[in-house]
Inverse folding.
């Protein structure tokens, strides 16, 4: 099959994504490799796939034993024109990741029943979204950040209408972006920067005058690859 036909086929899969299709794909997932900021950086520097690259600096690589569990919600909103994703922009004064675009979520607390409960609680605290409005579809592979958080992305679907009350301390803005745009491989830009003498690579996804990067972009890139993978 020619490359153009392959790309067309993959685009059709993204454009035709439904809640039931996403739920089915998540249910089909077997054991998946843990992704990480360092793994993605290595893959971009080496020109390999994000699931196969191995970071060269082991002293930089958080082990699962040293990470702190966290959960984020990937909130899919059912709109007449198609699925969209609810995202937040963090306030500029926060100590960690100020001003970045992210999924709502945070660190797991002892009282949380499971990681989905973490994602729902944090989302309610940050955005005011009622957990009862969210139907959980499944989880994406875990993602380890340079700050040693092991993030589990919990995919859920929200049916309008719903109300939001953002926490003014943590959240500067809440917005929606079309899922098909965020998962489109043509939007997944490769970026590099020097950090402590190393060339770090990361993904970025533009959306209008906004720029999604880091762990959030990495999770979306992996979400895309899982959705367009051959059956």
């Amino acid at each position: 099959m020619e490359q153009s036909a392959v790309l067309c086929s993959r685009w059709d899969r993204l454009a035709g994504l439904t809640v039931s299709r996403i739920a089915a794909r998540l249910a089909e997932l077997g054991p998946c490799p843990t992704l990480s900021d360092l793994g993605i950086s290595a893959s971009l520097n080496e020109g390999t796939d994000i699931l196969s690259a191995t970071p060269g600096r082991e002293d930089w690589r958080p082990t699962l034993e040293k990470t702190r569990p966290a959960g984020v919600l990937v909130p899919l909103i059912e709109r007449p024109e198609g699925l969209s994703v609810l995202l937040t922009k963090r306030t500029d004064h926060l100590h960690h990741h100020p001003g970045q675009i992210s999924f709502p979520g945070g660190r797991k607390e002892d009282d949380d029943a499971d990681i989905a409960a973490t994602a729902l609680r944090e989302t309610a605290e940050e955005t005011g979204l009622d957990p009862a409005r969210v139907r959980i579809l499944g989880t994406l592979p875990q993602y380890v950040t340079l700050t040693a958080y092991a993030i589990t992305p919990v995919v859920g679907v929200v049916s309008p209408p719903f109300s939001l009350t953002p926490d003014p301390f943590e959240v500067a803005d809440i917005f929606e972006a079309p899922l098909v745009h965020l998962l489109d491989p043509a939007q997944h830009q490769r970026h590099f920067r020097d950090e402590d003498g190393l060339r770090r690579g990361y993904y970025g996804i533009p959306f209008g005058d906004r720029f999604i990067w880091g762990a959030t972009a990495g999770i979306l890139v992996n979400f895309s690859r899982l959705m367009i993978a051959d059956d």
In short: The CA atoms of residues 38 and 58 lie 10 Å apart.
